[in-house]
Amino acid sequence: MSPSSTPTADVLIVGGGYAGLAAASTLYRATHSTIVFDSGLFRDDKAPHVRLLPGWDGTESSKYRQAARAELENTGLCSFVNAQVTTIAQQQGQDYEWRVTGSDGQEYQGRKVVLATGTDEIYPDIPGYKDCWVTGIFPCMFQFGYEERGCASAGILVVDKLASVLPQVVKLAGDTRKFARQVVLYTNGDEKVTAQLQELTKEVDYLSIEARNIRRLRKGPKRAEVTVELEGGDERKEGFLVHQPWTQLRGTLPAQLGVETTPMGDIRVEHPFPATSVPGVYAAGDCASPFKNASMAIAAGVCAGNGVARELPASI
After folding, report:
1. Prior bond to 263 cis, omega within 30?
2. Residues 199-217 pLDDT 10s
3. What are the backbone dihedrals phi and psi of residue 163, each rounded to the nearest 5 degrees, phi first?
4. 5 contact partners, CB below 8 Å, separation of at least 6
């Protein structure tokens, strides 16, 4: 395709993960054309297997994406561009209201936009954390933990985001308890958080609090095992750790569009069809939900496709 030509589609879908693929699948079923921009960057690349997706549980996420992409390409209504979208602009009054530029230098036009750009974790300032992420530090006890069931002890890092939602930490401890006989709450030297947790957990016999500063986390050789190095030189070995870090929206498109965001930093959308605050732009998946997993992303992508499809007949 020559650079002078401008490819067009009914819908431009930015993101080739679970949500973007589901939106494209829904839209082709409604006979609408899509261009899906796939950056090749996926939040779950560090996770070894797909979870909470019946029929695919335990499969590598890349295999799911490959299968879905092949299915969509065979419809004749969906094309893929292996590039990031770097800019987006509205062309009011035009049949194709949205124009984007890819990292390949090509411009593309569409009538509607679905953002499925995902998020990135903001790791806490604890040495070794990044090396243990997902392999030994789990963000969700519904996606992770089952394989580690029966371990003697597991820990929860009550830092950053979790330090601001202590009642949620107690619930998370209950989830963790299903896989470990004891649960340790690590407060990393925060005296205020330690005192509040002592009050909240005084009736919970399976919980203990470790208030010392964490010097380093070290991934163990066995399964999800992590060793916590503490101030003073002591070490504690945990079957796994639990933590939900802050996340940030991936890329600059939400800021370019000026979409509203939630206090947690996700794109604010309406429900059930996830329209953003900018007319004609929908958002689905991790970028627009606190529940960041495959099945929720797929459901949101389907809803986004439904919402967009119902807008298109009036604008074509």
Report:
1. no
2. 999 999 999 999 999 999 9
3. -70, -15
4. none
pTM: 0.93
Residue 270: strand, helix, or coil: coil
Instruction: Sketch out the chain's domains with CATH numbers.
Output: 8-120+246-315 (3.50.50.60), 124-242 (3.50.50.60)
The amino acid that residue 301 corresponds to is G
Which residue from 111, 97, 110, 115 is spatially nearest to 23, judged by alpha carbons?
A: 115
Q: Is 69 helix (H, G, I), strand (E, B) or coil?
A: helix
DSSP, residue by residue, 89-155: EE-TTSSS-EEEEETTS-EEEEEEEEE---EEEE--S-TTHHHHBTTTEES-TTTSSGGGTTEEEEE
Q: List alpha helices for the chain, DSSP H.
A: 18-29, 61-73, 129-132, 166-177, 191-200, 253-257, 294-315
How many CB atoms lie under 10 A from the CB of residue 206? Answer: 15
Structure tokens at 129: 């954390």
| Tens-place pLDDT, residues 145-197 | 999 999 999 999 999 999 999 999 999 999 999 999 999 999 999 999 999 99
Determine the 3-state secondary structure of 276 from DSSP. Answer: coil
Q: How many CB atoms lie within 10 A of CB 231?
A: 12
